[in-house]
Amino acid sequence: MAVTLVNPNGLPQVDVYRQVSVATGSKLIHVAGQVAWDADGKTIGEGDLSAQVEQSYLNVATALAGVGASFADVVKLTVYVVDWTPDRMPELLDGIARASAKLGITPAAPASLFGIVALHLPEHLVEVEATAILD
Which end of the chain has the lower number of beta carbons within 10 A, N or C? Predict the structure, then answer.
């Protein structure tokens, strides 16, 4: 395995991700920000943050699989949420849990969450980027 996920002593033990990833592979993969589009470019879950998070994560998984990788190879996730406030965390976590259940995974790579004003289309509420590494 090219990725080891760690929660070092002295840092908060966050349940949904690890604080550090150690990558030892040689093939670096950058997945462009994925939004809640299906394969035909139709927005899934308009107005529903949980549904859009789920679809965005599924799209990241599809992109990774397309180059022979999976969430197990992810070293960093970045999530951008339109009009973010902390009270939206349950919706975000629900979408991640739904995608995780469908994919049979636990995405625990280090992650950053950014509240933003807007994305490229007003119906999109979230965008997820990933960086992965393969041996």
Answer: N
Angle subtended by helix axes 49-65 and 89-103, to nearest 10: 40
Q: Model's pTM, two decimal places? A: 0.91
Tokens of 92: 């975000």
DSSP-based three-state secondary structure for 98: helix
Question: CA of 23: how far to CAs of 13, 16, 82, 131, in Å?
Answer: 20, 19, 30, 11
68: its two tokens = 């022979």
Strands 27-34, 3-6: pairing kind:
unpaired
Rounded mean pLDDT, 20-27? 90
Residue 14's pLDDT band (cuts 50, 70, 90):
confident
Tell me the per-residue pLDDT of 59-83, one tens digit each, with 9 for 90 and over. Answer: 999 999 999 999 999 999 999 999 9
Q: Quickly tell me which residue has 């994925």 as its tokens.
A: 34
Task: Tell the CATH topology of 3-134.
Answer: 60s Ribosomal Protein L30; Chain: A; (3.30.1330)
| β-bridge partners, 21 | 5
